[in-house]
Amino acid sequence: MGGPVAPPPPGGLAGHLDGFVRAIRETGIPVGISQAVDAAEILTVVDLLDREQLRHGLAAVLLQRGNQRQIYDTLFDLWWPLGDRPVAVPEDGEGEGEAVTLDAPDSAGGEIDPSARLREELARLLAEGDEAELARFARRAVAMLGQTTPSPSGQSWFSYRVMRALSPDSLVSSLLEGLLAGGERGGMAEQVARGEVRERLRSFKDAVDTEVRRRQADERGRDRIAKSAVRPLADQIDFLRAQQGDLAELRRMVAPLARRLAVRLSARRRHGREGRLDFRKTVRASLATGGVPVVTHHRPRKIHKPELVVLCDISGSVAGFSHFTLMLTQALREHFSGVRAFAFVDSTDEVTRFFTPGADVADAIRRIGREADVVAFEGHSDYGNALEVFADRWPTVVGPKTSLIVLGDGRTNYRPPGLPVLADLVQRSRSAHWLNPEPRRLWGSGDSAALRYAEAIDMVECRNAAQLADFVTTL
Q1: Per DSSP, what are the bridge partners of residue 431?
Q2: Following DSSP, what letter does each residue of 140-160 receive, concatenated?
Q3: How much is the pLDDT for 100?
Q4: 176 near 226, Cβ under 8 Å?
């Protein structure tokens, strides 16, 4: 929002900027030394009385991708708050630290409910659409309505108290009437007006959240609030904890990684740039140089189509990871000429048929749950039986031209892990890798056979898209 920046703490502007840069790095956004130097230079050329100019100036040198902007804005609001902080309460003279009572007005005294006054002012500001004024109003509303009753542990501030007291969503109808100015309802005009109302309500909600975080940061420290307020980048989200809303972003990230993985695995098949030596052509050509084979000739090298077998654990213990593995399988099907996919819980079934080019991943996952024969007994993970079923039913799938990728946590429910079967598959394949969604420190704990599997196959920790990218890069 507009306005000057609050004065930096006693450590000075340079130290304040250094803390801001370190906070950005801690979220997983890479900020190099040269970028930090450029950020310091920004402070000397922008107008510090224009907070938005400072926000965009620092973003221009500290960020590389658009999906980093939300995290950046959250941290910026914590480190560079508005300097023109208003008086915490209106003209009735009550102090900022004192909670405001929201009881109904006394019928004898005829006093006006503070929340009613604020609702009227909020309706006016939303109708005008001035974001700077909405931000100032949000700060005053938080001071009056967002504080809980003080306790020995200190004060607490909550956005929901403000939103519950003001109920801005109930103002939509009157705002629409004002924007349409008595015009006809329906059609494009109303759609545009509704979009504008939603945007203004969202702006007010964001301003309330920002002010609540600022007050919490003043009381508990910026670093502590930043860790809880900042949502990790999509490539840092743990596959095992991914929510439904994260899957679309993960799908966009997995597709290019799958393409790079296909290229990498194909490149490993090249013995050299040229095929085997063609002795006859080389000798014939050497006659022109006195029998000295200055130029050698080679037979055309036969290019083999890359073959890939993906073996995915889709049990409940790795539900979030199984969504990722199936997305990766679908992406590999689109970029890899020969890929066969197999899924397992305590038995194994081929699921290649569900991943036709252009198929919807969500639909494929639902069909696998309904139609794939991956449960033999009670539906708990049994790696040993799953590997044996795979080797018995598809004995020729893995061969000297095949790359094998296993995706799973390696937790066997204390059942036989099937190590000899896995070792035989690895030996028969051209290359084999196991991507494990659990942290390396947990391998071998409880019923995990990951360390034992790692003796037979190259096992890689792959908890998020960033680690997948590292695996593809170093392959």
Answers
A1: 403
A2: HHHHHHSBPPPBTTB--B-HH
A3: 38
A4: no
Residues of the chain under the 50 pLDDT cut: 85-110, 268-272
The model's pTM is 0.61
User: Which residues does residue 344 pair with via DSSP β-bridges, in sequence order?
Assistant: 313, 348
Range of the domain at 16: 12-79
CB 343 within 8 A of CB 406: no
pLDDT of residue 260: 74
On whether both 188 and 251 belong to a single domain, the answer is no
- Is residue 107 domain-resident? no
Residue 336 confidence (pLDDT) = 63
Please tell me whether residues 330 and 467 are part of one structural domain: yes
Cβ–Cβ < 8 Å for 337, 431: no
Tell me, yes or no, whether 440 and 324 share the same domain: yes
Q: Measure the CA–CA gap between 447 and 315, rounded to whole angstroms.
A: 15
Counting DSSP H helices and E strands in the chain, the numbers are 18, 6
State the pLDDT at residue 157: 73
Rounded CA separation 310/392 (Å): 17
Here the tokens at position 64 are 């590389």
Is residue 261 domain-shared with residue 349, that is, in the same domain? yes
Neighbours of 379 (CB within 10 A): 13
Q: What are the pLDDT digits (tens) for 175-217? A: 887 887 766 666 787 888 888 888 888 888 888 888 888 787 7
Domain stop point among 54, 79, 104: 79
Evaluate whether residue 260 is within a structural domain. yes
Q: What is the pLDDT of residue 90?
A: 44
How many domains is the chain partitioned into structurally?
Answer: 3
